[in-house]
Amino acid sequence: MPIWTLHGNGRTVEPGRVVAPDERLGWGATVAIGVQHVVAMFGATFLVPVLTGFPVATTLLFSGLGTLLFLVVTRNKLPSYLGSSFAFIAPVTAATASGGMGSALAGIVAVGLLLAAVGFVVQFVGVEWVDRFMPPVVAGAIVALIGFNLAPVAWSSYEVAPFTATVTLVSVILFSVWFRGFLGRIAIFLAVVVGYLVAVVRGEVDYTAVRNAAWVGLPEFHVADFASPGTWSVIAMFLPVVLVLIAENVGHVRAVATMTDASVNRQTGRALIADGAATTLAGFFGGSGTTTYGENIGVMAATRVYSTAAYWVAGLTAILLAMSPKVGALFNSIPAGVLGGVTTALYGLIGIIGIKIWVDNRVDFSRPVNQYTGAVSLVIAIAGFNVAWGDFQLGAIVLGAAAALLIYHLGNLIARWRRTGADDGGPIPAVGPLGGDPVDGR
Asked: Which stretch of 57-66, 194-203, 269-278, 419-428 has the lowest confidence by average pLDDT?
């Protein structure tokens, strides 16, 4: 059982210091901060199952269990909450449409197992090879194409109720630029609340399922289906998600290490193993794939509390919330118009995170190899390219990610040989939280 030393007087954070992962404040403050972490992750975590048709309560359950598993695997040294990963939305949506939920869950399991395998390699070999395989221009392209590939999905929901969708979208933007700190970081969640209230007034919400749901009960479980012939044809479209999860986890570890202690970087391999194990567990029984959450980094930066004790509280709180089917039914009642407005912003932001990786790392787009790495992969994703051999298909995300990797590495090989301007890449950057206070405070 983990033991934390008391920070200072247990009530306040000492000036110029942070509460380290192996420290804690008094239990009252620790519980309050843990609940705050749940609120911070909730707006994004519940959206993924709502958008993909997965049970919200089940996703919340495995989010909490995954967080506790993460803390155990990382030996209680790395504070993190594991919430639903947006990177899974596109492949899950496509897999569910073609092979059903069981096939989509099999894809999530495959991602989890591969991510854990990468984690074991990183743990024993180091993370430098990941930096060489997926430098910023490639990492940025893959993250961006996953977001932009979802643009038609956002429009299909938006056009159902344009007025409600527009109010929701305007609310996202307004809250993001109006609020500072914590409220700015949960702007999407606040916008969903506003859009939902507008939808209620306009009679667009159906409460039948909410009325019929019990207050207390186990979540709805589904089992991954590896037996259906169509499953193996959709698993390939999940594989690029592994690259995104690697970037998110490595970035999370580096961000925490920068704000606490450089020795935290030694937990990188364990973080990948833990997230892989949590994603595998969720996929086997009906939950969404997980990842470390930038929203919770924002909470830690604002409070200066990096205690893993707060995350034990957060994980347990999420598990308790998952035991109410009525809560899950309420979130599933969010109408298409609200989802259309919020996803127009959300999917675009996923794309912008990829572009931000390029900007933060000053990717040199005067070099042809970088130009075509980004250009070709994004067009493939936005246009929805696909290739089929009988029942086996490769979708736009797979083709776009493969194009980014092949163009970059083969192009660099030729450019070095011909001395026409190769790109030497660089480390994977930290992917920070969206929204909240700007870095310079202006």
From this structure: 419-428
State the first-to-last Cα distance of the chain, in angstroms, to the nearest integer: 44
Number of domain units in the chain: 1
Question: Would you say 421 and 411 are in contact if contact means Cβ atoms under 8 Å apart?
Answer: no
Condensed to tens digits (0 to 9), the pLDDT of residues 334-375 reads 888 888 888 888 788 778 878 887 888 888 888 888 999 999
Nearest to 346 by CA among 181, 198, 194, 176: 176
Instruction: Report pTM.
Output: 0.76
Contact indicator for 216, 323 with CB cutoff of 8 Å: yes
Domain that holds residue 173: 25-360
Rounded CA gap, 435 and 442, in Å? 14
CA distances to 1, 248, 254, 307 from 76, in Å: 10, 19, 16, 9
Q: Please calculate the CA angle 115-121-123 and round it to the nearest 5 degrees.
A: 100
Asked whether residue 159 is assigned to any structural domain, the reply reads: yes
Residue 347, C-beta contacts closer than 8 angstroms, at least 6 positions apart:
89, 147, 148, 150, 151, 153, 154
- Is 385 among the domain residues? no
Nearest to 292 by CA among 307, 273, 320, 313: 273
User: Is 253 part of any domain?
Assistant: yes
Segment 212-231, tens digit of pLDDT: 888 888 888 898 888 887 78
